[in-house]
Amino acid sequence: MVLDTPSDKRKRRTHTAVLDGARSLFLRHGYRGTTIEMLATAADVAVSSIYANFPAGKVDVYAALAWRTAQSHAEQMTAPIDAVESTHVVAEFLDRYIAFHRDNPLALRLLALTDVDKSESASVGEAKTKIDTALGELIDSVTRAVVDAGADVVPRALVLNAWAAMNGAVSLHQRRIVDRSMLDAMLAITRADMLRHLKGVPDETR
How many CB atoms lie within 10 A of CB 148? Predict the structure, then answer.
């Protein structure tokens, strides 16, 4: 399957090298500005090797990178939480979410499959289904933590509202409408606003 890392050692090496190269090139030149030849050069593989692993070419590379990004996001968000109290668990979820997008500036575009269309490759549709499922599970996890902590509003609505606000802030930064300091300020406001709706949240958690 195009999206998953191959079990064969040689194919796995090529698959990983191409996705690593694509991540750098898409960030620097954009999806449209990156050619299959540029991908081959960055990964130090032949163009034919890319097509052997990604039959539809660049669009399959994009879909696979999007799915790898979703998996990384899920791993970071579902790793063992250091906090014990429910309110601190929610705070850690928020901090991890912010850290992930700060470290992965392409993540929003990739997770939304912004630059590709289902008509270009079946892999795009497969990636969308898998990514939507993974993100849905993340939302469920945070919502459960909010329910455990207790909230003065509908827990899922609170989570989705914070998610939308954080994504919006990151998007504005990526479009260079706000600078890094403003982004940090906006994210801090969203974090504080969400935690304020939890019952008995101490000041240090906020």
Answer: 15
Q: d(Cα 133, Cα 143) in Å, to the nearest integer?
A: 15
Return the SS3 of 59: helix
131: β partners? none
For 194-203, what is each residue's pLDDT tens digit?
999 998 655 5
CA distances from 185 to 10, 105, 132, 180, 188 (A): 45, 17, 29, 9, 5
Q: What amino acid is encoded at 118 in this protein?
A: K
The b-or-e profile of 97-124 (16+ CB within 10 A means b, else e) is bbebbeebebbbbbbebebbeeebbebb
Angle at 83 between CA 79 and CA 86, to 5 degrees: 105
Sign of CA dihedral 130, 174, 204, 196: negative
The pLDDT averaged over each successive group of 10 residues in the chain (206 residues) is 86 94 96 97 96 95 97 87 81 92 93 95 96 95 93 96 96 93 96 90 50
Predicted TM-score of the model (pTM)? 0.91
